[in-house]
């Protein structure tokens, strides 16, 4: 296996609720409290953020702070690309999920001719564009940007020129073409979507393994099917948004908690199944928000437990 390089991106400007910028530190505290030296053993790079812009007046209400998100995703993309070109494994720890567009863009820039597979473990589809978003929070848009999908058929918002320009810049980070094909995207646990996202999921035939389906059919059956579905891909990126977990079972320590999610052991099972394919070349953990945790630091502790368990298996 390649040497792991931690990429710490504490940005939370793409979220609707503040606090995810502290998620990485909460995970480190979780490790310290159980005397685990993971974060001392793994070399890391810190990505500069624009978190101070949360004090700025929002002028692009259908894509809040998108200009700064573009800058942040460019920084992440450049860092991921450099780490991959150095033959290291980028393990990205992020605040909010808008960062995934930067990670995927850097992954594609480092592998321009590769077929990329995307494993998206999340309660949300993150397929909105500024034209369709009801909230304007950019952490709900990374996959639409990566697919270069405006979804104009479901348009509800009229954008100004600055927002359009920033959105086009976001879509074109790393490459001016879509980063991957819709058939190479697999969702796990998506259960909180809007009509615009559902329309894309249906028309693009994107597979979502719901929690109930995996428990009914059997997690191993579903994972065998899913890994075979991505067998033609040259490289795989996994992202784990902690809101894929059952907020009632674990905690509500994330910006958009949703009930009836996965248990931690199921998340480990999913991630490990793909790691065993030897095609995973990049991974991301995101959306831990300790300010919202109703059980002390439980969400960060759970996220670190998954991280540590999966990478022990990976080694």
UniProtKB/TrEMBL annotation:
The keyword ATP-binding does not apply. InterPro entries: Arginase, Ureohydrolase, Ureohydrolase_dom_sf. Pathway: Nitrogen metabolism; urea cycle; L-ornithine and urea from L-arginine: step 1/1. Keywords: Arginine metabolism, Hydrolase, Manganese, Metal-binding. It is an enzyme of class 3 (hydrolase). Its cofactor is Mn(2+). It comes from the Bacteria. The keyword Transferase does not apply. Its EC number is 3.5.3.1. One of its GO terms (cellular component) is cytosol. GO terms for biological process: arginine metabolic process. One of its GO terms (molecular function) is manganese ion binding. Belongs to the arginase family. This is Arginase. It comes from Algibacter mikhailovii. The gene is rocF.
